[in-house]
Amino acid sequence: MAAETSGAIEQEEQIVTPWEVAAEKGGKIDYDKLIDKFGCQRLDQSLIDRVARLTGRPPHVFLRRGVFFAHRDFNDVLDAYERGEKFYLYTGRGPSSEALHLGHLVPFMFTKYLQDAFKVPLVIQLTDDEKCMWKNLTVEESQRLARENAKDIIACGFDVSRTFIFSDFDYVGGSFYKNMVRIAKCVTYNKVVGIFGFSGEDHIGKVSFPPVQAAPSFPSSFPHLFSGKDSLRCLIPCAIDQDPYFRMTRDVAPRLGYHKPALIESSFFPALQGETGKMSASDPNSAIYVTDSAKDIKNKINRYAFSGGQDSVENHRKFGANLEVDIPIKYLGFFLEDDNELEHIRTEYGSGRMLTGEVKKRLTEVLTELVERHRRARAAVTDEV
């Protein structure tokens, strides 16, 4: 434990918390190390095959390609499902920016697949309160951003009859608040400092926030949805930086008589400039936004997407591209559906027969179509919806 708390070593090591993600100096995030440190399990092929068997449909591209790569008790949820017991999904978003970028869409695209494949209910929490406390936004501004973000989330196409989207400022109270208090009583100050690294300089809002994100893991927080279903299991798809919240939640669940929530966790979506951490919403050129025009997308990919190609065509033909660091290839891995086409591009580009410009062109097509589709869906989201 000593190593984790001493500041000097912290800089050498990678940092992954819900509020900061940074790789070791000049490197990229080491996910194996993270799995060891957090104590979750790797998502192996047998689990992926099992999902395909239980749902009767091919596994999502994010499963096939290891975007979602770690889990906690996912097998227990599948065991229960096989016995005929349903579960519910819980995911969320901290609304810190007006528009979402592609990295923000990843958990929602995957959650939509899970909802469709397993035909289960879903709750989506907008932590407008969290962003108000961490990002120096006013209460009103946080609420406004939550509403804007909700439109983008609805545009992902969730099953309206099975989905409940709420913002903390509007919904927290009643049964939900009772669970927050029950959770809070189980977690000592020392424990929360150990998990989240709070210091004496942090205001008490931060220290008291974790129960708010923990409460949706328990079905009784939603009496209008799950009345009398206290044994319903919860599965949380999220990026792995959210893991500390749910380590805490899983710790207290048995003491409150609930199942531990299960998690299925993704790696970070890399910034255009390369894989040193996750994208920054504050640097518009580090990401492609769902509001970007076709021209913006083309421009950002051509100018900013870090390439693993060689410095001259001659060298590129000779040595081929370094696929390990090439961002267009990584992005295609997320968003190009066709496995065969992706494999073909990797082979051709890696051998130098295909040039960076051609890969960037294909990526531009894929992302322009994705963003265009999203824009149309978002435009259809009226205030009534």
Question: Any overview of this molecule?
Answer:
- With 385 residues, this protein is of the alpha/beta class.
- 51% of the residues lie in helices and 10% in strands.
- The chain contains 21 helices and nine strands.
- The longest helix has 24 residues, at 356-379.
- It is globular.
- Mean pLDDT is 92; it is low at 1-11.
Number of helices: 21
Classify the secondary structure makeup into a structural class: alpha/beta
Mean pLDDT: 92
Summarize the amount of helix as a percent range: 40-55%
What oligomeric state do the depicted chains represent? Answer: single chain
Number of strands: 9
Rg is: 21 Å
The main pleated sheet reads as: 7 strands, mixed
From N to C, what is the helix and strand string?
HHEEHEHHEHEHEHHEHHHHHHEHEHHHHH
Outline the low-pLDDT stretches: 1-11
Instruction: Describe the strand arrangement of the main beta sheet, using strand numbers.
Output: 3-4-9-8-5-6-7
Strand content: 5-15%
What sort of overall outline do the alpha carbons produce when their principal axes are compared? globular
Q: What distance separates the N and C termini? A: 49 Å
